[in-house]
Amino acid sequence: QSPLIRVDGPVDDVDIKIDCDYPLTAGQSRGDCLQSVGYDPDRLIHLLRVHDSTIRSAGRSGVAIHSGCIDCIIESSTFDCVSDQDIDLEGSGGISGLTIRNNAFRSSCPSQSSLSVSLFASDHVIFCDNQMDGRGLDLYGCADCEVARNAILQRSRTDDPVVFWRKTGGGSIHNNQITRMPTAGPGGLIAIATKITAPSNVTVRDNVLDQRTAAAGLYANGIDGLTIIGNQFLLSNKLDAISIEGAPNGGLPGSRIDVASNSMIGPWRSAVRLSGGYTGLIAPIAITNNISESPMVCDSGPGIRGGVVYEGNMMPTPTSCVGVIE
């Protein structure tokens, strides 16, 4: 499929403002509205800026960054009726310092992808101050990436609106409003999970997480270094606000877990579910100063090793946690 515009490295300081109406049409090989291709180290693209653009339709992706893009920016643009992802980092590497900010992502037409934005094999990406209406965000091997101050409304049937997986050097999800509507079907809001390898040193803080389907608010497995602090969990159908366990298929146990100062409002089955299943959980684990009308629940207690610090919570007596709490 042919892109409407293609940028090849090496090139520095490229400024692009487009109005793209490039739908997939029978008999025509229409692809991305904008495609950039750079190669590390000799054909890199530096300082590509896409701004104030309107992507009305695309036969494939709105903006596809294949590789080799350093300190690039996508900002103040609107995406709609894109056949694949609105923004797609296609995973050949060499993408660092990308900023995606102040964009509007809509999905008023059918799409072959449940994702609006895919951040693949990149580092130091900032995804902030965006409006997402319909589809989700996938961070696959995105190291030291930040998701901040976005309004994410999940309408389409898909996985969690924010998915953070495979090995990374850490990341932060903070100050977002994330809502899953019943039209999306059962599914979580945030997943931080093992996919071959797992992220580590991830912080989830100060988000409003509005769950309107029968699934967990936040799910994590096999994470070494997970901080969940200051979040508000709303409106569930009696499942788990936070569910944490070890990794399946022989991955790593979960460890260095800190769940603090969160409020869980609604008929949750549990405020926090800790599971010793799969590879289990290993101390240090601390559940402190949380507020909920639902208890902490411990599943497969023998797989939770080293004890759990449980202090200062305004919650009912923990369930099945005898011998687990220090």
Quick structural overview:
The chain has about 325 residues and is mainly β. Helices cover about 0% and strands about 50% of the residues.
Span from first to last CA? 59 Å
> Helical proportion?
under 10%
Q: If you average the pLDDT, what whole number results?
A: 92
Beta-strand residue percentage: over 45%
Number of strands: 38
Are there runs of 5+ residues with pLDDT below 50, and where?
none
Task: Give the C-alpha Rg.
Answer: 21 Å
> Which structural class fits the helix and strand makeup?
mainly beta
The profile of the biggest β sheet is: 27 strands, parallel
Principal-axes geometry comes out as: elongated
Q: How many individual helices? A: 0
Any chance you could write out the topology, listing elements then pairs?
Layout: E1 5-8, E2 11-16, E3 19-22, E4 34-37, E5 45-51, E6 54-58, E7 63-67, E8 69-70, E9 73-75, E10 78-79, E11 87-89, E12 95-96, E13 99-101, E14 104-106, E15 115-123, E16 126-128, E17 131-134, E18 136-143, E19 145-148, E20 151-154, E21 162-165, E22 171-174, E23 177-180, E24 190-193, E25 200-205, E26 208-211, E27 218-221, E28 224-229, E29 232-234, E30 240-245, E31 254-260, E32 263-265, E33 270-275, E34 281-288, E35 291-292, E36 296-299, E37 304-305, E38 309-311
Parallel strand pairs: 1-4, 2-5, 3-6, 4-7, 5-8, 5-9, 6-10, 7-11, 8-12, 9-13, 10-14, 11-15, 12-15, 13-16, 14-17, 15-18, 16-19, 17-20, 18-21, 19-22, 20-23, 21-24, 22-25, 23-26, 24-27, 25-28, 26-29, 27-30, 28-31, 29-32, 30-33, 31-34, 32-35, 33-36, 34-37, 34-38
